[in-house]
Specification:
Layout lengths: L1 H28 L16 H5 L11 E4 L24 H7 L3 E6 L4 E4 L2 E5 H14 L5 E7 L9 H9 L15 H4 L4 E6 L18 E3 L7 H13 L10 E5 L13 H9 L2 H10 L8 E4 L4 H15 L4
Parallel strand pairs: 1-9, 2-5, 5-6, 7-8, 8-9
Antiparallel strand pairs: 3-4
InterPro entries: PI-PLC_domain, PLC-like_Pdiesterase_TIM-brl, PLipase_C_PInositol-sp_X_dom
GO molecular function, one term: phosphoric diester hydrolase activity
GO biological process, one term: lipid metabolic process
């Protein structure tokens, strides 16, 4: 008991130090970067407002959500706080400006996060189609993966094509150099990451898992995650030289040996430092590698930061 208590005291001390490191860096370095003062006039149509004919896919900073379809997961006030990473529906996230969705599923096509499940993936498809019907030039990256510990839904690749076929941008390395206008009316890059089923191939309607990469750091310590994100980002080629999307997760996650196990209070430790991360990407000379930035509980300011940097890239200021 004494050893466990001492361990918790040490962890709280480490956490306090790490939070202070980022807070002090924010004061000294600020949060400015090219485009940081930009505010999109309409987040729902922010790609259209930037200009579909001059916006190339590799220039976009994609605002993404982590565990996107968890707004209704679990039982409210009982299991939900341990698995919920977003409070908005898929449709609401897209209207807010989210352009990359992270969907985890199990064998029966229910969305899940670990052992907890929620609504059918059909709800996700319905929300996406509603959003696409209301907009004209917004491109989405839809990542669907079989959650760890679960089996792939049978014949799922064909099912996705059935649901979204007319919107799907087919697997093609040349997409990264193209403008949004070049791809229209197709609007969805769907990346399918099965556990055992064969992955999609070049030319298929869906894209394989290698086209969306990241380096997940499983920690609840904000400065540790922040520094690791910078390190792994620095190891990537610039966006103009690579043929895959690279994601940085501006999140930290609860750990089993920590008394705080609810997602929201833990991820808040890093949530407010997204603009600082972009600032430090410039300070360390790796901003030309930024592409997808994801978060829990996405908000308008997070979207604005991504759109602002995208605008600066298109204008040649970044």
């Amino acid at each position: 008991m004494g050893a466990q208590f001492s361990k918790q005291v040490e962890r709280r001390k480490t956490l306090r130090i790490e939070k202070n490191v980022l807070a002090e860096l924010k004061v000294t370095a600020g949060e400015d970067f090219p485009g940081s003062d930009y505010r999109p006039p309409d987040r729902k149509n922010w790609m259209a407002n930037l200009g579909s004919e001059r916006t190339r896919i590799h220039q976009i900073i994609w605002p993404g959500t982590h565990d996107s379809a968890t707004n209704d997961i679990g039982i409210p006030f009982i299991t939900r706080p341990f698995a919920q990473c977003q409070s908005l529906s898929i449709y609401q996230q897209l209207v807010l400006g989210t352009r990359l969705l992270d969907i985890r599923i199990q064998e029966n096509r229910l969305v899940c996060h670990g052992v907890l499940s929620t609504y059918s993936v059909d709800v996700v498809f319905s929300d996406i189609k509603k959003f696409l019907a209301e907009t004209q030039s917004e491109i989405l990256i839809l990542e669907i993966r079989t959650e760890f510990g679960h089996n792939d839904p049978p014949d799922f690749e064909n099912y996705v094509v059935e649901q979204l076929g007319e919107f799907l941008i087919h697997n093609d390395d040349r997409v990264f150099e193209k403008t949004i206008a070049d791809l229209l009316p197709r609007r969805v890059i769907c990346i399918w990451k099965p556990r055992k089923s064969p992955p999609p191939k070049g030319g298929d309607p869906l894209w394989g898992g290698g086209y969306l990469r990241d380096n997940w750091i499983d920690t609840d310590l904000p400065s540790t995650k922040f520094d690791s994100n910078i390190k792994h980002l620095s190891e990537q080629p610039p966006v103009t030289k690579r043929k895959y999307f690279y994601r940085v997760e501006n999140t930290v996650t609860p750990k089993a040996d920590n008394p705080v196990l609810c997602v929201k209070p833990v991820t808040k430790r890093i949530h407010k430092f997204a603009r600082l991360f972009i600032n430090q990407s410039f300070a360390k000379g790796v901003a030309d590698k930024l592409q997808v930035l994801s978060t829990d509980f996405i908000d308008g300011d997070f979207v604005d930061a991504c759109v602002g940097l995208t605008s600066a890239r298109i204008d040649g200021r970044a």
